[in-house]
Design goal:
The complex is a heterodimer of chains A (138) and B (209).
Chain A lengths: L6 E2 L24 E5 L3 E4 H15 L4 E4 L5 E5 L12 E9 L4 E6 L3 H12 L6 E5 L4
Antiparallel strand pairs in A: 2-7, 2-8, 3-6, 4-7, 5-6
Chain B lengths: L2 E7 L5 H9 L2 E8 L2 E9 H10 L3 E6 L3 E10 L6 E8 L5 E11 L10 E4 L3 E7 L7 E4 L8 E3 L10 E2 L6 E6 L9 H5 L6 E2 L2 H8 L1
Parallel strand pairs in B: 1-4, 2-6, 7-10
Antiparallel strand pairs in B: 1-3, 2-3, 4-5, 5-6, 7-9, 8-13, 9-12, 11-13
The chains are: A alpha+beta (138), B alpha+beta (209).
Amino acid sequence: MALMPKRVKHRKSQRGRIKGNATRGNRVVFGDFGLQTTEAGWISAQTIEAGRIAAQQYLREEGRLYIRVFPDKSVSSIPLETRMGKGKGEPDYWAASVKPGTVLFEIGGTTEEAARICFRRLAHKMPVATRLLHRRAI
Amino acid sequence: MADSLQVEKRDIRGKKRLRRLRDTGTIPAVLYGHKLEAISLSVSGGDVTAIINHGARMVDLTGAVNESALIRDVQWDTFGHHPIHVDFTRVAADERVEMVVAIEFRGEAPGIKEGGVVQHLLHELQIECPAGQIPEKIEVSINELALDDTIRVSDLKLDPSITVLDDETQSIVHCVLPTEQPEEGEGDLLGESAEPEVIGRKDEEESDD
């Protein structure tokens, strides 16, 4: 099931602007390798779920996948063939707003080769450019 | 033998000036410790990256200062590509220091053939050892890790000069049966109509009534 918040303060959110690079969530913390975005963008809950399925189909029961982003931004839309005006549309889907440098997914317990192949499959689902990131001791 | 690193004294300070310094491929650094005065330095960013990627933690500083130092902390840019600042601590080779060292797993666990999954629970180990003998990484062999086996910190065979500061009962790696995950249909992906609870909405409605 696609991710979404359990409770929210407001049903609809403003679009906002994604400025600057990520200063948090930009390091590999849980696994051994990470998939880092090099672009800013919105990643919908469906996209995250599609990536998770693509990765887990490859990993099977080997290794562990960590999802590092959560879709907490509601994106609204108006129905087709609707006249302009009459206020903001209803929430359509949930998205995670990511800045360049954010680690989207992590993998632990596999070889680097397996992680690379897995992330390649996963990256095809992502709407942003990504790169592989290693865990650093210092 | 420790790698040598050419350093220069640095007088410039401030965000803008240091950004210009980094544009030239040189990064700011600081040397402190042993209750002596802290010295602002600048070093080549490429040399620092090479030394860190090589796994060295002790360096012999040459140029503006001539002493051995430990790379205590490194600040990286957003993408973890380039270092942007380095902290050096003055140490003698026989001085005991506390460090965090990466754990590397070697081999293939026989438990995988029995249907198990190897889970790495600890990636770094906090140790105390002489500064001249800091290991690049701690290798843990999982060649004898059967199903339902666990390797703990107390099972590690380390050099006698190394003292582990982490809890000895802590698990490093284990091999367990995979947890069953419920199969999810495509309908779950598309049929996302439920909305989350809005905080405070119920209270407002009640107050209106």
